[in-house]
Design brief:
alpha+beta, six-stranded antiparallel β-sheet, five-stranded parallel β-sheet, 15 helices
């Protein structure tokens, strides 16, 4: 079988790498891919952008692709699955209607409230009905969110009423384009975040390994929000009782609610959760795809064939599936361009990849490009170095050994990925 992976980041490198290990998979195409996917055995890049749905469908038909897996949210929200289905092509992910769970935060909040799934209290505003007085009487901090997709930048946590009102006004005035035509003003939730990712098909569900990521740029979870500076799996915070609560209070009611609303959801479903002191799993957001960088450590642990799980979901056989996992922990450290998440340089030559390839663990590429025989930086998040170990601490050591072997001008990365989990481990 030939597989097409749509996207070109670290998540897509990990998905492609995983699929390429399967004996029945003859070839994996990645559109557009990166320098990492260009150099993997059995994997080939295709020069089509992830949002060029027509060209992707044409390629899938002409190349005889048996299964397409979509990495990023953009094409899903734009309806890639509907388009592929119209041509009889198997494409794993939610339809356009189902992807609204990620594509519109206002829709997702209304959905959560209507189906009594725990989430922060909120109100939705447009330019026409914006009411600064409502914001002025809310408890601080306040969370302001652009309704639509804003490349992970559309959430602002405000410490004062004035800054919350200013952030709302600038979103409504078009700071994030039409993504800010509506905004969600939301109560701030304290706690610890976890990423809970499942494969879903209607009411059938298979929970994947748990994970946690670090969204802030700097050590100690300080500095600006980013797409993610590192992640690890499993998340020790999600003990069996917490896992059971997440399934019963979030995942199952979500799938019931979607079915009740007449929406068939097939694909990865990612619930970003804030676990409070009482262990209530509050939903911060839904994503309609796998997380980045969570995919990288999770794929390192998945022993079952990923394409078989995707196909079982597409065929409605997910309820008869289990997934096998490496019992070891996996931890990924994102190596980013200096200046990320603000402005950064591209085109810096990366050294040490060959030395890193001789070490245990795996370096997944994200924003990289092949220039002749050189690999150069081509994005904010450039690489994700993943280590495995008997526990998070030893996985962390292996990951930082990889990081230590690699260098480019102005590289930046956090030195403490996994620190909360390691603290938990040392407390026994
Ligand atoms: P989202 O895209 O909605 O997940 O928001 C991005 C990040 O903002 C989350 O990963 C959290 O770190 C933070 N965040 C979002 N909503 C809240 C909230 N209600 N309370 C606290 N932090 C939040």
């Amino acid at each position: 079988m030939k597989v097409l992976i749509v996207g070109g980041g670290g998540r897509e490198h990990a998905l492609a790498w995983k699929c390429a290990q399967e004996a029945r998979v003859t070839r994996v195409y990645v559109a557009p891919g990166n320098a990492g996917t260009a150099r993997e055995p059995k994997i080939e890049n295709v020069d089509i952008a992830a949002d060029n749905i027509e060209a992707l469908a044409e390629f899938a038909r002409d190349a005889g692709i048996g299964l397409t897996i979509v990495g990023p949210e953009g094409p899903l929200v734009a309806g890639i699955v509907d388009r592929f289905a119209a041509s009889g092509l198997r494409c794993f992910g939610p339809t356009r209607a189902a992807a609204r769970l990620e594509g519109s935060k206002a829709y997702a909040k209304d959905f959560l409230q209507r189906h009594r799934i725990p989430t922060a209290s909120y109100r939705t505003f447009t330019q026409a009905n914006f009411d600064p007085e409502y914001l002025r009487v809310q408890r601080l901090p306040l969370v302001i969110k652009a309704d639509g997709l804003a490349a992970g930048k559309g959430v602002i946590i405000c410490e004062t009423h004035e800054s919350a009102i200013a952030a709302s006004r600038s979103m409504l005035a078009g700071e994030f384009g039409s993504a800010g035509d509506s905004i969600v003003v939301e109560e701030f939730l304290a706690g610890e975040e976890v990423s809970f990712i499942v494969i879903a098909h209607d009411r059938q569900v298979l929970a994947l390994a748990t994970s946690q990521d670090h969204k802030r740029r700097d050590d100690g979870d300080h500095g600006p929000n980013t797409g993610g500076m590192g992640a690890y799996s499993p998340a020790p915070l999600v003990a069996p009782d917490v896992h059971a609560r997440i399934m019963a209070e979030v995942i199952e009611p979500t799938l019931r609610g979607l079915a009740a609303d007449g929406i068939a959801y097939t694909g990865f479903l990612y619930a970003g959760l804030m676990i409070g002191a009482d262990c209530t799993p509050n939903v911060l957001e839904f994503n309609c795809r796998f997380g980045d960088p969570e995919t990288q450590p999770i794929m390192m642990r998945l022993q079952s064939d990923l394409t078989a799980l995707c196909e079982a979901a597409l065929d409605g056989r997910l309820d008869r599936c289990t997934a096998a996992w490496d019992s070891r922990a996996a931890l990924g450290v994102v190596m980013a361009a200096g200046g990320y998440p603000e402005s950064y340089r591209k085109g810096e030559r990366i050294s040490g990849l060959e030395a890193a390839a001789r070490l245990p663990g795996k370096v997944f590429h994200a924003g990289t490009l092949l220039e002749g025989s050189d690999v150069v930086t081509n994005g904010g998040r450039v690489l994700c170095a993943v280590g495995l170990g008997v526990d998070v601490r030893s996985a962390q050591r292996q990951a930082y050994d990889l990081v230590g072997a690699i260098h480019w001008n102005l590289v930046q990365y956090r030195r403490d990925i996994g620190y909360r989990a390691i603290e938990r481990e040392s407390q026994g």
